[in-house]
Amino acid sequence: MAEQTRMEGTANPTGVVWLVGASTGIGRALALRLAAAGWCVAVTSRSRDKLEALAAEASGSGRIQAFPGDVTDDAGLKGLVEDIEAQLGAVDMAILNQGDYEPMGLEAFDPALFRRIVEINYLGVVNGLAAIMPPMIQRGRGRILVTASLAGYRGLPRAAPYSASKAAVINLAESLQPELAQKGVSLRLINPGFVKTPMTDKNQFKMPFLIETDAAVDAIMKGLDRKGFEISFPRPFAIIMKTLRLLPYGLFLWLTLRMVKADEGEN
Ligand SMILES: NC(=O)c1ccc[n+]([C@@H]2O[C@H](COP(=O)([O-])OP(=O)(O)OC[C@H]3O[C@@H](n4cnc5c(N)ncnc54)[C@H](OP(=O)(O)O)[C@@H]3O)[C@@H](O)[C@H]2O)c1
Q1: Is Oxidoreductase one of the keywords (predicted)?
Q2: Which of 52, 169, 203, 246 could bridge 148 with an S-S bond, Cβ 3.0-4.6 Å?
Q3: In the annotation, is 162 catalytic?
């Protein structure tokens, strides 16, 4: 029962969280916030130096520890989770947040870019799940969150590799959630809209409902304390994108054609 209480909220946590994609952007800010809230945070990404700088920023508390790794290395990730559990104890919550993005118009259609983005955004989540699900299932408890995007709701112009990879993550989470729930492990989705991070700094267009990283972390922290499958934000943009998801193809494709024409007009 004490264990149950500890797992359900973030207000007074004492557990271990494995946060992947923590060197920059949303993940970095989330790591600091979770540490401040009392979690022991194992942070993973490819950049050891950035993770060590992050751990140093939370120094004194010792609450952030660097475990560098690459999500495209499935065997490496399994070993990484074993190391985390050996050093910090059982992982109570895993947040698979890593991501890669590159806009791509038709003129630059490139299978290599699709492969790169799918390897990180989709298969990277698969590899993370393969590493963290077995110990959680064995214990009969645990929480897993995967970061997709509101851009995964429907195919969006000039974003095919990214949009498709995030649609795959959403679909994957829907597929796995019921079976995992049966095993005592919760699986949830984080679907952000536009957030100001190194990922979106490369966008040339005006991003609707763009929010700062801190606002994104506020929404995630609130979502962690609530129930429900999906944490989506910012709310107005999430509502628009959910409405878009309901539109019939004729209307949806008419709208996206207008987006393409407007984009061509600007360039
Ligand atoms: N920013 C937005 O507007 C927005 C909107 C919707 C969804 N999202 C999603 O939110 C998540 C965080 O994005 P962000 O905006 O914070 O982007 P970001 O600042 O670019 O962060 C991406 C993170 O993923 C890590 N990463 C990339 N490839 C990796 C790999 N092969 N192995 C391990 N880690 C890897 C990066 O670290 P290293 O380079 O050190 O490996 C970095 O820590 C992503 O899943 C993104 O798709 C973002």
Answers
A1: yes
A2: 169
A3: yes
Alpha carbon of residue 209 to chain centroid: 19
For the stretch 20-50, pLDDT in tens is 999 999 999 999 999 999 999 999 999 999 9
- The string of pLDDT tens digits covering residues 120-171 is 999 999 999 999 999 999 999 999 999 999 999 999 999 999 999 999 999 9
26 lines ligand 1 (CB under 6 A): yes
User: Where do the domains of the chain lie?
Assistant: 2-266
Asked whether 149 lines ligand 1 (CB < 6 A), one says yes
- CATH of 2-266, picked from 3.10.180.10, 3.40.50.720, 3.30.1330.10, 3.40.190.10, is 3.40.50.720
The answer, as to whether pTM is greater than 0.85, is yes
* Residue 92's pLDDT band (cuts 50, 70, 90): very high
6 Cα: distance to centroid of ligand 1 (angstroms):
28
- Encode 135-171: b = buried (16+ Cβ within 10 Å), e = exposed: bbbeeebbbbbbbbbbbbbbebbbbbbbbbbbbbbbe
Of the pLDDT bands very low, low, confident and very high (cuts 50, 70, 90), residue 267 is: low
The two tokens of residue 213 are 């990283």
- For residue 195, the ligand 1 atom closest to its alpha carbon is 3
